[in-house]
Amino acid sequence: MLPASGFAAQEFSAAEQAIFLADQLANLRPPSTLRYSFHKAGSLEAGFDDAVVLSFKPQADGSCCASTGEFLTGPRRLPLPDIDNAKANPVILYFLEHDIREMRRLTQGPENYFRKRIRMAVFQGATVAPASFVYKGKTVAGRQVSFKPYLDDPNRYRYEKLAGKEYRFLLSDAVPGGVLGIRTHIAAAGADAAAPPLLSEDLLIEGAEPLPKATP
């Protein structure tokens, strides 16, 4: 999911730099543990609440970070590789890997196809906007990166029900690990703002205020 290596930073979009290339772990002092809540809801299928835990330890030279993670638990647990010399927060890659596997499960489409659509959207279709969040009772400044990778997909007819899916990455240097939360959201069909979403998934760091209800 990472952008290809070997390119100068200016060749990446602002969204790519914010999500994949920023040194989000610069404010960690290993050993350290980051905990996130995970909430799934919507009318498409049964929801659940679960947890994500990432552990970081110093590398041999004392620098940050070597990481291990557990994304969800029990039968939902996603097997994850350890990451050495992590700079960007691995929770982003883990969330996207989970998301891509869910898209495959729901549509029977190939994982690589969904990876490509997300990469393209982050490169050329994402918006990056200033934002503020509440973390441990205090308002902190950050950015929101959002995109919809399937709206202009010529193959969207294969999974029309899910084509409006929106991704939002909530980023802040004031939060350990740089990632306050990640949300995916598919609004219910029609214009009824009060209707529950078709599907939504929220990942949120421990200590953050719950995300407001998504709007269609």
Describe the SSE topology.
Blueprint: H1 14-21, E1 32-41, E2 48-57, E3 66-71, H2 90-107, H3 111-124, E4 127-135, E5 138-147, E6 166-171, E7 179-186, E8 199-205
Antiparallel strand pairs: 1-2, 1-8, 2-3, 4-5, 5-6, 6-7, 7-8
Helix pairs in contact: 2-3
User: Strands of the largest sheet, in order across it?
Assistant: 3-2-1-8-7-6-5-4
Please estimate the helix content: 10-25%
Strand content: 25-35%
Number of beta-strand segments: 8
| Tally of domains | 1
Radius of gyration over C-alpha positions, nearest whole angstrom:
17 Å
Contiguous runs where pLDDT drops below 50 for at least 5 residues: 3-9
Largest sheet: 8 strands, antiparallel
Shape: globular
**Roughly how many Å apart are the termini?**
27 Å
**Helices and strands, in N-to-C order?**
HEEEHHEEEEE
Feature tags:
disordered N terminus, eight-stranded antiparallel beta sheet, 3 helices, 216 residues, 8 strands, 31% strand, alpha+beta
Could you describe the 3D structure shown?
The protein is of the alpha+beta class and 216 residues long. It has one domain. It has three helices and eight strands, in the order H-E-E-E-H-H-E-E-E-E-E. The chain has helices at residues 14-21, 90-107, 111-124, and strands at residues 32-41, 48-57, 66-71, 127-135, 138-147, 166-171, 179-186, 199-205. The protein has an eight-stranded antiparallel beta sheet with strand order 3-2-1-8-7-6-5-4, covered by helices on one side. Helix 2 packs across helix 3 (111-124). It is globular and about 50 Å long. The two termini are 27 Å apart. The model is unreliable at 3-9 (pLDDT under 50).
